[in-house]
């Protein structure tokens, strides 16, 4: 099964699932959800899955879901912030008045 991203609202995080059965948590992006906003606060990938592009898949999946849900993104997490910086087509998710705060 191909790696995929899923929201786990009960854990307040997105997870990227991989492995032979596609059910192993390879990484996660923790968030805090408030009215109309999602603040990404921490991202991790399991060391044994490093170098496979799963962090980028996780960021893209989480941000695409935020866009689909109409949520403004506050990228406090350095990984998510850096990923948005490398993919400027996602910068519009960060409120314009807050972009300078995040270096975007």
UniProtKB/TrEMBL annotation:
The keyword Transferase applies. PANTHER family: BSR4717 PROTEIN, PROTEIN NATD1. Residues 6-95 form the N-acetyltransferase domain. InterPro entries: Acyl_CoA_acyltransferase, Gcn5-rel_NAT, GNAT_YJDJ. The keyword Transferase applies. Transmembrane segments: none annotated. Coiled coil: none annotated. It comes from Streptomyces subrutilus. This is N-acetyltransferase. Keywords: Transferase. Gene3D superfamilies: 3.40.630.30. It comes from the Bacteria.
